Amino acid sequence: MPLLTVLALMALPFVEVWLMIAVGGWIGVPWTLAALVSLLVLGVAVLRRAGTRAFRDADGALRSGEPPRGGLLDPLMLMAGGILLVVPGFVTAVLGLLMVLPFTRPALRWAFAGWAQRRVRRMQERMEEEFVVRGSGAPGAPGQGPFGGTGEPFGRRPGAGGEASPPNRGRVIRGSFEPEDPDDTGH
């Protein structure tokens, strides 16, 4: 997925320029420039309004000690839409208008909430799998100690209680240690 995003972002300027040339050939260069300038002015107006509103909501929330009443997603969508409108081009303008228009924002909010829930669920599943691989439960799970299944802060100790060392712990070399005598020069 990230590769597709990178490729789309690399192709966007070429698509925008091609679309500007096509629209310029269809309606004329002056009208194309007028449309791009009007989209820029609309984007600046949206950014100013969204910034003022977000600042006012944040200030009110800080003064009252409560979270902002409208949430953070709407001002962020308005600001992102305003930025997309300021960027010259028709593809970015359409995306910006989708984020700015009041009747499309609820659908985008719903889609973003679903995406975020799926992402959080996937991250939780990966965390649980990682804890199982390491041989301990997720911290705070029922029947678990504060440091996992064994109560050990760094997981299970290898070889403790007759258990084999957990996977991914590296190779263990058994041996003995004999200290050197500082008086012995060894020659």
TrEMBL record:
Keyword Transmembrane helix (UniProt): yes
GO CC terms in record: membrane
Region of interest: Disordered: 131-187
InterPro entries, sorted: FxsA
Alphabetically ordered keywords of this record: Membrane, Transmembrane, Transmembrane helix
Pfam families: FxsA
Record's compositionally biased regions (Gly residues): 137-162
Biased composition (Acidic residues): 178-187
Superkingdom of source: Bacteria
Transmembrane residue ranges: 29-47, 76-101
The protein's name in its UniProt record: Exlusion protein FxsA
